[in-house]
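User: Run a structure prediction on this.
Assistant: Running it now.
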Amino acid sequence: MNVITKYMVLVLGFVMNIQVANAQDTIQKDVNQFKIKKLETLKADIKKQEREFLKQEVAAIDELYSKKEITKEQAASQKMEAAKKRALNIDNRIAIINNKILILNRNQKDANYKGVIIGDSLKEVFNSIDCESDVPDEKEYDKRIKSGLVLAFGFNNALFDGMDLEDSPYKFAGSRFFEIGWAWNARVFEHTNFMRLRYGLSMQINRLKPDDNKFFVQEGNKTMLANFPSNLKKSKLTMTNLVLPLHFEFGPSKKEEKETYTKYSTKHKFKIGVGGYGGLNIGTKQKLKFKEDGERVKEKQKRDFNRTKLIYGVSSYIGFGASTLYVKYDLSPIFKNQDVDQNNISIGIRFDVD
């Protein structure tokens, strides 16, 4: 009985191997047919994609002609070249697809097949088929928005109503500002980058250092400068604002065409920005350093100091590439309820990531 059982097991195993081999051949044929069908569909997608690219290129050429940047003859020549390029792209890309179809028809076993038949589901088999890689991602002709870090620093002071900057009671070299933020740069028009809209979120830190041994005191609803009773080593008021800047930026740029996108670069190009900002004062503190009874004393005062809470102003920058000369001026007064309004003004260097 044991001998008969062994022979039956051997026979059943042989039959199972034949059935598995036949199943593999059948499934492989089905896989190949599926891939061929998918490749045939991709040929239609290629034609549609290249025609859409040509349509966009013709629209860009028409835009240049309407602005009289090129002549009618140049426009016609450029359209002809674009049409030839797209026609060749279609022929070459479809030829690649046709060759793949020939290989699948010729061979029972495709080299790109990665699935395991026995013990795996048909879903895993079809998931192993990758034909999408034959068609590249669509070219992003309209890459119109970029973003990057904004950094600025320089001198800070205040303009008093009816007074010149040289009459300010604050040290010019000692009073500074710092700004850091993130900005988005959006092309306003579709086919030209001459005008851009730059907007974002920034933190502005404005510092004022009083001259002549003075410091800030708050008396009721007014803030004023007063003489400190001993010699001050340092007197500094720091005002921190969170603002939303908005600028219209103008200037030439260079068009850069890549494999999957087209963009405009302002690297090493002249630019000018005009706009403003609005936001809130989120903190004010005064730092004092002095000696008392022979000991060094550091004192920090976090108070309201009658600061204006709503901050708004105008700003502008001019320069080349990423670095520009930067000026900003608060239209809102520094302190509320003053006999003479004073407004913060900053002059420095600004860096924008292109």
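Residues 113 and 129 are 7 Å apart (CA to CA).
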